[in-house]
Write the structure tokens for this entry.
Amino acid sequence: MKAVVVTGYGPPEEYTVADVPAPRPGPGQIQVRIAAASTNPADVRLPSGESRDVVPLEFPHVPGNDFAGTVSEVGAGVTAYQVGDEIFGQAAPRVLRAMAGAARPSLSTGSLAEYAVFEADTPLLAHRPAGLDIEHAAALPTVGLTARALMATAKVQPGETVLVVGATGGVGTAVIPLLAAAKARVIVTAPAADADILRALGADETIGYAESEYPSGVDVAFNLTLPSDHLAGVAAAIRPGGRLLTITYPVPQQEWIGRDDVGLHFVLDLDGTFGGMREASGATCWTSGSGSTDTLTSPTCP
């Protein structure tokens, strides 16, 4: 089969497309013919070598976490899926086993390939809804699961003001409609050129990236882009008793933000504690027959 192959640490410009043996499923696993796959920051950072001391890679390495495809073979003991099932989801490279879910880890051989093998018993895989097209299904997993976990952790109340730092990425554009549906006032950092798009998604106000432009006294801040050891400026915008949620490494420490009166949360839900792929896909409603997603709906589809 053909796959994107990393042969040594380096930037994505050094990746190649090569022929490699197709992986076969063992007990409890499924093989999927990949129809579409998306890339996320972790897909690039792991092969970059920045984490090689903690998570050394074995080469050749096939990257890719998010995917949509068709089950092409099932291993012994698998009952949740059959050959021909259309599925989608998120799975980490097997080298990240120690960081994946503790109980039912979602691991794979890499989705940037014609075929990949996945663990069948994980909440981070699901059957693809009929109204969700393949491309959207492949783009949804990481951002959908993260947006759901952010909302469940923050417990945003109607009327609260939420600052979203880094709103133009996948997670930002997924979480803004959910915040709007929760009746929060949403302030986002973004380039001026993206202001109209973000307002259409539900943002009330767009501001620049400079800390001097941050509002004061916000109830909640979502950090989606800054390293978590550079959040003092974001924390300064939060009212006493407010909450700061971040999805970036390194895992934040309270002393780094210079505030002990702000709740600090690192959001990474690889166990599906706040719902797996099936629940995350329910955060978006699909327009029947149009092949498009409507991200301006509430978390519960009618």
Notes: The chain has two domains: 2-139, 143-266.
